[in-house]
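Hi,

I'm pasting everything inline rather than attaching a file, because the server keeps stripping attachments. The sequence lines come first, and each chain or strand is labelled.
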Amino acid sequence: DGGITQSPKYLFRKEGQNVTLSCEQNLNHDAMYWYRQDPGQGLRLIYYSQIVNDFQKGDIAEGYSVSREKKESFPLTVTSAQKNPTAFYLCASSPLAGGAYEQYFGPGTRLTVT
Amino acid sequence: GQQVMQIPQYQHVQEGEDFTTYCNSSTTLSNIQWYKQRPGGHPVFLIQLVKSGEVKKQKRLTFQFGEAKKNSSLHITATQTTDVGTYFCAGTNAGNMLTFGGGTRLMVKP
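And the predicted assembly:
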């Protein structure tokens, strides 16, 4: 059963701690993305990766970091430098990078930082 | 940078009424995509429009891409409770990533 998995579904952290969100896909897609969604708002691009060992900053990369050591995996670290980390985080993938391709989304991780 | 605006932000309709959401870009788009996100869920791709003036239909949903490729609309005929959710448009400049609109949240009263 192909798709994208994100874990955990809910995550709670204390302020000042780094936290890593998992994203795995078995669709054999080259491109992967991380978005942030705040209540009642659209999706904002944090980082994207076109291929293994490559990634690019999106519109709101400050306070976040990523790695792409394997094609299947694109973890996102929310660092203590991110001023408002509480949000719904969505991972997505597409066959190739770019807006011409349909994006497949994971179920998301809801992060709460207090 | 590229901005994509969607209106309205919210819409309440009675079941059976029609619904339309509008998407406007500050720049000309090479294509536009539409996604639906059910409450508590994740966005799911609905359709992509590429050509100027293009119209596509999926059952009760009609999607249009403007002649200037700067706006788009999604129209739902005779809404049902299963249509509840947030509808997002997302546009692309040539070679760039998708930029999502803020979404229109549709609520349907049975």
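DSSP finds no helices and eleven strands in chain B.

If the labels don't parse on your end, tell me and I'll reformat.
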